[in-house]
Amino acid sequence: MTSMEKRLQKELQALTKDPPAGVIVNTESVSQNMSEWIVDLYGAPGSLYDGEKFQLSFKFSPRYPFDSPQVMFIGPNIPVHPHVYSNGHICLSILTDDWSPALSVTSVCLSIVSMLSSCQEKKRPPDNAIYVKTCSKNPKKTRWFYHDDTV
């Protein structure tokens, strides 16, 4: 068993045993391929996404956890959010530049729930149309430019 597989086994066990509120790993998807997970994510109560169900795709390279997973929304319900493109790509620094091996599937899911929960208005990024037409299928190949929304 590789170090990636050992780490993912440990994370899967923790996530299925004690999942955070609104986060459910699709164990059937994991049993078919340990390096590709589907996680169901539910909008937090009281947020703009309260009661909505989303799906995240996690793809892990053999270098995980030293290399961040490829994470994106999939399926028919992609959240309308200023940092989520209509193709499911997520502009979130911990998925690229700020990734650390100390992070996990659980911490990524919690960060995404937090990002959704802090949203004040459901709208797409201003460059959504051009980005979706010109981007790579892999969001990790995008050179993101992060800025603080609170300024």
From TrEMBL:
PROSITE patterns: UBC_2. GO terms for biological process: protein ubiquitination. GO terms for molecular function: ubiquitin conjugating enzyme activity. It catalyses: S-ubiquitinyl-[E1 ubiquitin-activating enzyme]-L-cysteine + [E2 ubiquitin-conjugating enzyme]-L-cysteine = [E1 ubiquitin-activating enzyme]-L-cysteine + S-ubiquitinyl-[E2 ubiquitin-conjugating enzyme]-L-cysteine; S-ubiquitinyl-[E1 ubiquitin-activating enzyme]-L-cysteine + [acceptor protein]-N-terminal-amino acid = [E1 ubiquitin-activating enzyme]-L-cysteine + N-terminal-ubiquitinyl-[acceptor protein]. Coiled coil: none annotated. Residues 3-151 form the UBC core domain. Keywords: Transferase, Ubl conjugation pathway. Gene3D superfamilies: Ubiquitin Conjugating Enzyme (3.10.110.10). Its EC number is 2.3.2.23, 2.3.2.25. It comes from the Eukaryota. Pfam families: UQ_con (PF00179). It is an enzyme of class 2 (transferase). The keyword Transferase applies. This is N-terminal E2 ubiquitin-conjugating enzyme. InterPro entries: Ub_conjugating_enzyme (IPR050113), UBC (IPR000608), UBQ-conjugating_enzyme/RWD (IPR016135). PANTHER family: UBIQUITIN-CONJUGATING ENZYME E2.
